[in-house]
Amino acid sequence: MTCLVDLFRPAIGFAAVKLLEEAGCTVEVPPLQVCCGQPAYNSGDRATTRAIAAQVIDAFEGYDAVVAPSGSCGGMLSHHYPGLFDDPVQKARAENLASRSYELMSFLVDVLGVTKVAAQYDGRVTYHDSCSGLRELGVKQQPRRLLASVGGLKLSEMESPEVCCGFGGTFCVKYPEISNAMVGEKSADIAATGADTLLAGDLGCLMNMAGKLQREGSAVRVRHVAEVLAGMGDQAAIGEPEGKR
Amino acid sequence: MQSTARDFKDNAHAALVDPNLQDSLAKLKVGFSERRRQAAERLPEFEALRDRARDIKNHALANLDFYLEEFERKVTALGGHVHWAPSAEDARRIIGELCRSMGARTVAKSKSMVAEEIALNEHLEALGIAPIETDLGEYIIQLRHEPPSHIIAPAVHLTKDQVADTFLEHHRKLGFTRRLTERNDLVAEARYVLRQKFLDADVGLTGANFLVAETGSSMLVTNEGNADLSNTLPRMHIVLASIEKVIPTLEDAAVLLRVLARSATGQESSAYTTLNTGPRRPGDLDGPEHYHVVILDNGRSAVLGTEMQDMLRCIRCGACMNHCPVYGAIGGHAYGWVYPGPIGAVLTPQLIGVEEAGNLPNASTFCGRCESVCPVRIPLPSLMRHWREREFERHLTPRAVRQGLALWSFLARRPRLYRRLTGLANRMLALFGRAQGRYRTLPLAGGWTRFRDFPAPPPGGTFHAQWRGRRS
Amino acid sequence: MSEARSQILDGIRRSLKRGPLSGDALKAVEARLAEPPRGPAVARAALAQPDKVALFCQWAEANNATVVRVAPAEVAAEVSAYLARNNLPAEAVIAPSPQLAGYDWSSQKMLSLRRGRGEGSDHVSITGAFAAIAETGTVVMASGPEHPVTLNLLPDTHIVVLRESDIVGGYEEVWQRLRARYGKDRMPRTVNTITGPSRTGDIEQAMELGAHGPRRMHVLVVRE
User: Fold this and answer.
1) Do B412 and A181 touch (CB under 8 A)?
2) Share of chain A above pLDDT 90, in %
3) Tell me: the pLDDT tens digits for A44-77?
């Protein structure tokens, strides 16, 4: 479970669990997992990253697959962990974890072969391709394929769904003005689609875009794609108070 | 060029509020990247060519000493001269002496990023020699006393109207008193003004896209033909190139050419690709009598064999900046030195020091779009991360970031404590954010809430808390 | 100077953690230079000769050149007609090559030709081409007494007389022809590969023709 989902939007976690269970998986959430280490990794602190990675490797020992509802955390485990270790034993363990780690959409479609979901969502949505999922893990068609099976849902693509929203982890607070310009362009692109709902696969990006849209007074609702696919699209959207739909 | 990379944040601010720049950047973001995509799609072998291009450059770098010596041998055999410049100062001195040996008063220059890197124009001017930039974009910014803002489109930050004003101001004394409004008229006027300068120049100075070891040729790729006039009309042709420009053979050049123009401008081929090999031959009716190649190191050899070596594969197509959302927001000048964009963010700390240029590799979301379009597959985000690691090792990371990171990592390594604290934070944020569902301001999160609302978590506790509750 | 040279080369070797190449490593790079490996084959460049000619014409036109296919006997008349069509004066500077001398220029009484290099005042040049590349619609010019480089660059209008049989698929075939003609270690001083007229995208990224080199390129593809 990603840190952001744990702290800010547990519904995404439950949606992911639901989708996985419906696809026939037994899901466990190891209690001793913490962060995957991205903040340290991207700040240049390799020693801390390594220590955290070792902890994550321990926490997920023995599972067939490790699935995160996030491209950036999934990518961290599957693409970056092995490079952290020089020690051959630890490296082998990291490689083993990497080979079992997946982003949720890609796991559902590419590994489990899920082709449709039983969900209803009445609205016009647009989908933002989060960078790590798209470019590290090749997540592009999988969520669109599943969204196509959602009743009542219409997808309107942005002009540039693959351009970064300006979140970038600590980037958005280290360089807030640049980040703001980027997310400003993104919100204009979203608005131009006429969609009433924005979906994506990473909560960091979603919080960034939701925060900008709401600051601009936009009525676009923002949700994680898993929530809609799991039929949980009737809860309050990100940044909206309970009871509002 | 004096670096302002230290002032990156201020530079970026100025860029974001400059309406002309923002107009120009809006055009850049749709122009080059869309054309590159189409060009790549038209060539089914494009991805295989990128792989080979990467392999060729890796091979050349692994045998760089051999290929440089081979190149020198071929140049010398055909009557040319090779000069070795370990530092920028060495290169400036060598070129200055060559120009003086010709009694040169003007030098026709074809756009060269290496010449920018070594601040050649300032040096020539100090010697009383006038450098004339002949690439249209370089010419425009030379008139405006500005550095280039892009490695292949140096005046990409300017609008047509700004160019028109610049020409009116500087060409008035040549009799051009009408302010032009059409692009083709501006091009025609520059052509007219520069043509005479070409004919008068004593020395032509060009960069090189590639140095071909097999034949001792310097290879130049342009659209305007200015490099060709620079290396044909004056009596001396000086090529200034850095060590990593050498490639083994013409066959390798064919591969690199196929990815270069498509990645840069989305053209199938640039208009002019020229191989120059030595001075004019007996019986030739034109061409330079003297041919010199200045090979610059300037710290590059020290990058070989390190985790940073991949940056030396760069063929300077500019695709990384054309696709970078940060470059697209702030343009090239904000980076504060010669090379902007993602490749600048890895090259600049190497060339002027990470103390000076530390902001550059940090100002990236690691979105990876640069790497996805790089024709030689340079892992730019990884290289930027390596710079952050070097900063961190040398305690150059800002204190607030270090302290925040230390606190966070303390907690992240203690899962039970972490869980208690996140549970508390979750409840607080949910409680106080309940009415609106979000925050307009939040203590310690000014960087976020200055521009964005901060979503509050819904009530009910963290995922882990709820999960425990459900499963027990 | 030799000190600077060894400073750089030694620096490279230090970084690569080895001395000068020797033994098998040296043999391997020497072999690679002697027999250059080709990159991935580009299907577009591997066509039958008639299709190469058509592809060349297609890409040259896509790159803003004009192309006309003529018989050898029609070359001189087409040059005159082209100049007339474009309201250009009936005078040109022509490369002093035997190939070009073989066409029937005397049939064009109004056409005034000067043999030699290009000057800043020339409006029209006529040259042959060493080869042309179908893959991109590119003409290839090898410099020499018979083909001054200035003819490719200075005039406003460049007329290229290209023999069909000189059209090849891709760059690699041009390199082969250069090696065959000039020797493996002896390139002509300048090889210009030119794809359409001179252009610039330096003002607002909009391509404008005629930056420094010719504004117009007209290619006569000569049937044989």
Assistant:
1) no
2) 96
3) 999 999 999 999 999 999 999 999 999 999 999 9
Nearest residue on chain B to A41, alpha-carbon basis: B385
Same-domain status, C12 and C115: no
Q: Which two tokens stand for residue B233?
A: 């009309």
Q: Taking a C-beta distance cutoff of 8 angstroms, is the pair C130, C177 a contact?
A: yes
* Residue from B280, B258, B282 nearest B270 by CA: B258
In order, the DSSP letters of B410-468 are HHHT-HHHHHHHHHHHHHHHHHHTTTTSEES--TT-HHHHTTS-EEPPPSS--HHHHHH
**Angstrom distance (rounded) from CA B423 to CA C219:** 76
Looking at the structure, do residues C96 and C148 belong to the same domain, yes or no? yes
Q: CB under 8 Å to A159, separation ≥6 — which residues?
A: A189, A192
Q: Which range marks the domain in which residue C32 is found?
A: 1-37
Whether residues C21 and C131 share a domain: the answer is no
Q: Which domains does chain B have, with CATH numbers?
A: 42-301 (3.40.50.10420), 403-471 (no CATH)
Under 8 Å between Cβ of C115 and C83:
no
Residues 254-313 (B) with a CB less than 8 A from some CB of A = none
Residue A67: what are its φ and ψ, rounded to 5°?
A: -120, 130
3-state SS class at C73? helix
* Pairing verdict, β C190-194 and B272-276: antiparallel
Residue B380: CB partners within 8 Å, gap ≥ 6?
Answer: B320, B342, B343, B345, B346, B370, B371, B374
Domain CATH for C198: 3.40.50.10420
A65 close contact with B: CB closer than 8 A: no
* C-beta separation of B8 from B349 below 8 A: no
Question: For residue range B387-412, what is the model confidence (pLDDT) as tens digits?
Answer: 999 999 998 888 888 888 899 889 88
Distance CA B315, CA B257 (A): 10
Residues 6 or more apart in contact with residue A202 via CB below 8 angstroms: A70, A71, A72, A130, A132, A133, A167
A43–B392 CB contact, under 8 Å:
yes
- Burial (Cβ within 10 Å: 0-12, 13-18, ≥19) of residue B356: middle
Banded model confidence at residue B461, pLDDT cuts 50, 70, 90: very high
**Interchain CB contact of C199 with B (< 8 Å):** yes
Q: Å from B184 to nearest chain A CA?
A: 31
Report the relative pairing of strands A221-224 and B272-276 from DSSP bridges: unpaired
Neighbors of chain C by Cβ distance (3+ pairs < 8 Å): B
Q: From residue C90, how far is each of B274, C105, C114, C122, C210 by CA, in Å?
A: 30, 12, 11, 12, 21
Q: In what order do the strands lie in the sheet with A221-224?
A: A151-155, A120-128, A197-200, A221-224
Mark whether C118 and C201 lie in a shared domain. Answer: yes
Which one of B90, B225, B301 has the shortest CB-CB distance to C153? B225
**Residue appearing with tokens 């007609």:** C81
Identify the pLDDT of residue C23. Answer: 97
pLDDT at position A32 = 84
DSSP-based three-state secondary structure for B346? helix
Tell me if C149 and B269 make a contact (CB, 8 A cut-off).
no
Among candidates A199, A107, A207, A214, which has minimal Cα distance to A153?
A: A199
Give strand pairing partners of B125: none
Contact yes or no for A240 and B438 at CB 8 A: yes
What integer is the mean pLDDT of B147-166? 94
- Cβ contact, residue pair B365, A183, below 8 Å: no
Q: Do B229 and C144 touch (CB under 8 A)?
A: no
> Phi/psi of residue C7, each to 5°?
-60, -45
Instruction: Return all residues near B367 (Cβ < 8 A) that are at least 6 apart.
Output: A131, A135, A163, A164, A168, B325, B381
Spacing of C-alpha B457 from chain mean position: 42
- Based on the fold, state whether residues C54 and C27 are members of the same structural domain: no
Nearest-angstrom CA–CA distance, B186 and B168: 10
